[in-house]
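Thread: "does anyone have the structure for this chain?"

Original post by V.I.:
We have the sequence but no experimental structure in hand. Need at least a predicted one for the grant figures.
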Amino acid sequence: MNNLGLAIIASTLLAGCASNNHSLILKLFIKKNKHDPIKQTKIKPVLFVADGLNKNGSLVENYERGLNYAIDYFGNYGPYYVYLLGPSNKQNILDIYLSRAETRVNPNLSYTRKQQVEDFLKRPNVTAEIEAVLEGRAEGGLTWSEPPIRVYEDVTTNATERENNPIENTWGALHEYHHVFQIAHCDSYQERTSDQNLNSWMTEGTATYSSAKFMENLNLLDFKKYMLDLRKTGGNISQQGINDFLLSEKKWHLDNETYWEKGNYAQVYYMLGAWATAYLIHVEGVAEVTVLKSWYFDVPRIGKSASFKKHMGLSLDNFYRKFDSFIRQSDEEVMKIFKAKQ
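Reply from O.Q.:
Generated one for you, tokens below.
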């Protein structure tokens, strides 16, 4: 596996005169990465770790285990900044967020670097996130900035939980980096119903499938058991499994984007989406690398509908009908798809 040798910026480097050197490094990262977000970069991911975390190296080691695997599979897209944070001293956290603001500065804008940094730090979502860090609340996730200064960020506000659970730590790194690859190959600022963007089930479902499959490849998970758990118990995603959801929701649609607001998004986008991914691979016989990776390359050029049909061999509408019939079968029947060699 290709180990990129992650650039780790410990929080102790963010104080005093060292912060000036760090700012210079960030400027160089930005300067060297002015290109199409679809293209890969040679810039290594950067990890920011708050004071008090990673004392024995396990936090970064287990995160890196997943991230390196994902980059080896999908390619290196970025710049990618990972923030493993927790209730450290306030100044330490503020220094990290100052560095984060600097990575997003656009030198071509009419207002100054200082103004851009101050504006970012005053955003309500950013101030709320800092509060969550200081209070040890588990929030955050993947985010990204607008072009032309495109950066991707995986923000964990309570990395103490990650440190205490190495399996989930690796799993999270795999899942979020799949999203980085996906976002690089679509117009993420269009509506998810747009043909230039991806539906939620496409992003969350395939990332759920891929992270579970890659965890098995790393000898950290029983993939088939996990897929069955999604049906029976909800696995590590929800307290309600797919089976109970299907009993209560007779009419549901993978391409319905309103579940984020009205609930059941975990069951539809993550869990049914993961099974939709499994269906394409194990029933329709599409190569795993095509479903998880290759078909995205054509989305910016011809749109997701045409790319899906080109690579999967059936239209989205036809796929939705066939998958709906498949997933309503018994556990015993649907699990048979994993017996065939892929």
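V.I.: this helps a lot. Residues 7-184 form one domain.
O.Q.: and The chain has two domains: 7-184, 200-339.
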